[in-house]
Amino acid sequence: MASLDQNLHVLSREYAVSLDARDPLRHLRPEFLIPSKAQLKAKSLPEAESSDSSSHNASVYLCGNSLGLQPKLTSIRMQQYFSTWASQGVFGHFKPLNESPLPTWLDADIRASEAIAPIVGAQVSEVAVMETLTANLHLIMSAFYKPDIDGRHKIIVENQAFPSDHFAAESQILHHNLDPSTSLVTIKPPSLANSTLTTDHILSVITEHASTTALILLPGIQYYTGQLLDIPAITAFAHFHSIFIIWDLAHAVGNVPLQLHDWNVDAAVWCSYKYLNSGPGAAGGFFVHENNSKVSTSEGGDGKKVFGNRLSGWWGSDKSSRFAMNNRFVPIPGAAGFQLSNPSILDITSLAASLEVFEKAGGMRPLREKSLKITAYLENLLLNMGAYEEKVFEIITPKDKEGRGAQLSLKLKDGLLDVVMKELEERGVVVDERRPDVIRVAPAPLYNSFGDCWEFVEAFREAVEVAVKAKGGEVKAEGTRELEKTS
Question: What pLDDT shows up at residue 235?
């Protein structure tokens, strides 16, 4: 590593400003509502609404890995939806309005699929926007997890899987009257000193249990460490052993380029409120490869449709006969055939508004290019901190730029986290935490700047100094645990 003197310029605020001036995506930041420091300190909604929201007082918001910021376009599109509902009532389902950018409600799910497909590298027919991540995960698992206790019955997950994924896998096993102690395999890091999982290690666990494994569930990006797994290589290896694999892309979608169709991914699920900026708890989405969602006609001449069984609902049935009310389920080929009820137009409108901003960015390629640069810049600032040299914290996210997304996870020494988080909050810096001692920092390329990264490191430097002194009894400082309650 170069000396501090040699790196003095690249560590300066002026250098961050120069990087922002050359950023080809700098025009996107004004597309978002960034909470001001005054708004974050507000104690009531009227106070928050009346507080200074000008850009010069903006907070340093590096928490898009938990909840993305609101695009300004969202409220415009939502108001257009409300106006359609107010003025058209039930006709909004099928009556197109001139000069409206919104689809009819009957076609909203198709429009959403068209918008999300390029983000995940899928054919439009392979994706659907509906429900939430865990609900979609259960729907996919109910269709493709067919355990045989005398053969393939195991589900492989990682031992640090997001709890909802672990609960889903465990409950599916129990639903089939099996025992998680024998049917649930967890991939543990080979070393306690390293919380990341190498591809070789993952493949070795798959090999060990291949003959008895029915399904694999892994994250595209691990939520705790920020590690990007090798999705195509692991998928191909699972297929070599005839194992169905599902990817949880909660922290990958809108963060890194994906090619789910070309990688032959069996199925994937995601939420939309992190890097996709659709709002808290908004509808998620899922992918089912065309090979796993075909609908054919039987050869018996009776015209009977042949398809893989799944939990079914009327919105997944053939659109031309959906309203015939004849109780004959004929699934739409593709992911749409896994839909249950008519989707929330409120959620789809919010998501579609954000995806319009992705279009303005030019898609995932330029976003990834900026993400690689801005995350590396943040990493360099952190590596040049005295606290890093003194081992007050370490970066547990992989150093390889291609092995991570936007997020860097910083692991603090014991007893510092609560005070550091409180001190950052006092300085108008928003990141989140994971117990017992990790801070997650995620510069989202759509709206974060190099200046945000510089401001964070300066605030982090001060916060760590206060926390170390508080731990040593030199000063008194309060802590907070508010931002552990995020996903």
Answer: 98
